[in-house]
Amino acid sequence: MGGGGMGGGGGMGGGSSEAKPVIVALSENGHDRFLGVTHDSQGNIYTTGIVSDGADAAADFATIVAKFTPAGELDEAFGTKGIATHNIIVGKGGEIARGIVVQSTGKIVVAGTVEHDGAADERDRDVAALRFNTDGTLDTTFGTNGVAILDLSDGELVGTTYVADTQWGLNLAANDKLVITGAQKAPGRTDLDFAVVQLDADGKLDTTFGTNGVTLVDIALQGASPKSATILGDGSIVMAGYTRDMDSIVSPVLFKLTPAGQLDPTFGAGGIFNQIVLGAVTEAYAVALQGTNFVTAGYGRNSAADSLDWISLRIGANGTLDTTYGESGVAKVDVAGFNDNARSLVTLPDNRLLLVGGGRSTMDDSNATVGVLMADGKIDTTFDAKGVKTYDLGGASDFFWGVSMSPDKKTVAIVGASGNAAGMGDDDAAIMLMPASL
């Protein structure tokens, strides 16, 4: 296992003003990727993702948590030289961890999608959460021996596609409760419904939430693509995602739940914002609070002939599109001329927005990307003339996947991976620190 820290070369010290990503190669021959990131109350950085035992299609993926100090150095007292690893289900590549939070006790909870153990079809999936102690060991008091497996629905083969449970986000609610965002096969249908699951602090379903711990949200009988959520001060939950209609138009979704897991009728139409924004595709991958409004990060295009651009929307507290944001309600960033994808965002202390993702300079080469928008959705040319900076992490499919603001609001931690096409090498995890005052 290789490794590295940020130190002064990470752009946060040593007199350097330019942030630089650092590759953290966890496996010499297998894939390793950082997909989610958070801070604890002391400013330590925790990131989650996967590591595999090889780079081929048969590789077995395991869940990882890495701990970095506020300065960006691996904390070698955590886990094994800064890395905690647990293989939830020994098998193939269905184990993908994206969500991570730190509870008030300092314990770290991770959520992801895992293979359904013993399934007749190897594409069947469940949702999993697991907890690590502060030293990086698995906390066996959580769930069942450290892991809570949620089999939300029975998977089903539909044509050549296998429809099964999926997970994307994880948030911390009051009293250290855990809110997992994902999807399950719709009851009686063959598409997916949005699913929000609440667990108590120790990994058991919170039966006071939704229906026996789960809230399902259906959008006009359309298949759900779940992404991340944010939790408001009153405990309400706003989740982002998108759907595809019968004409194959992809439209963004935000819905708001009460703390008890019921749709909030004061938001949008019956608790839901969902409308066609761009003519072909508008996706919402992440949502953040900006004042009393909600801003998104995603991507889209007006027609199939167009390339994808970064897209950010602003939705008012009442669940309607704010047309004063960007251009007629849409902030658009063309990173590099070809298909670009924004994956996550944070609101900076001055209400500007920092987005992360990837941008393609050619159809076959993506670079990890950071972009900044002004509070009104216009490109921040003080950050860069185009509003974005790209970083070549060494692969053909480099992306930043997650971003977290430090508790003192002085630093953002950004994580992702140097990606390679099948047969072209293994992926390596990456982390970068930037000042929040950039």
Q: How does this structure look, described?
A:
The protein has 438 residues and is mostly beta strands. 0% of the residues lie in helices and 46% in strands. It is built from no helices and 30 strands. The protein has strands spanning 22-24, 32-39, 45-52, 61-68, 83-86, 96-102, 108-115, 125-132, 147-150, 156-158, 161-163, 166-172, 178-185, 192-199, 214-217, 224-231, 237-244, 250-257, 272-274, 281-290, 293-301, 309-315, 330-333, 341-347, 353-362, 365-373, 388-391, 399-405, 411-418, 428-435. The chain has a four-stranded antiparallel beta sheet with strand order 1-30-29-28, with no helix packed on it. The protein is globular, with a radius of gyration of 20 Å. The two termini are 33 Å apart. The model is unreliable at 1-16 (pLDDT under 50).
Record keyword descriptors for this entry.
globular, disordered N terminus, mainly beta, single chain, 46% strand, 438 residues
What oligomeric state do the depicted chains represent?
single chain
What count of helical segments does DSSP give?
A: 0
Strand residue percentage: over 45%
Low-pLDDT windows of residues: 1-16
End-to-end C-alpha gap: 33 Å
Mean pLDDT, all residues: 93
* Most strands sheet: 4 strands, antiparallel
Query: How do the SSEs run, as a string of H and E?
Result: EEEEEEEEEEEEEEEEEEEEEEEEEEEEEE
Strand order of the largest sheet: 1-30-29-28
Total number of beta strands: 30
Shape: globular
Radius of gyration: 20 Å
Query: Which class best fits the helix and strand makeup?
Result: mainly beta
Q: Percentage of helical residues?
A: under 10%
